[in-house]
Amino acid sequence: MKYDNPPYSPKSVVQEIELIEDTTFVRVYDAMYLANMGAG
Q1: Whole-model pTM?
Q2: In angstroms, rounded to a whole number, what is the distance separating the alpha carbons of residues 38 and 24?
Q3: How far is CA 37 from CA 23, 30, 33, in A?
Q4: What is the per-residue pLDDT across 18-32, written as a single tens digit (0 to 9) for each?
Q5: Whose CA is closest to 10, among 20, 2, 19?
């Protein structure tokens, strides 16, 4: 996937991990972030 404005710098260190069980990841935002995005 290519981003116009990626959420990381081009020389970021990358770590690959292997999950040993099914896992669900969620993205959590705080109220300040949501207010800045116009959602609050």
Answers
A1: 0.29
A2: 27
A3: 28, 11, 6
A4: 999 999 988 777 777
A5: 2
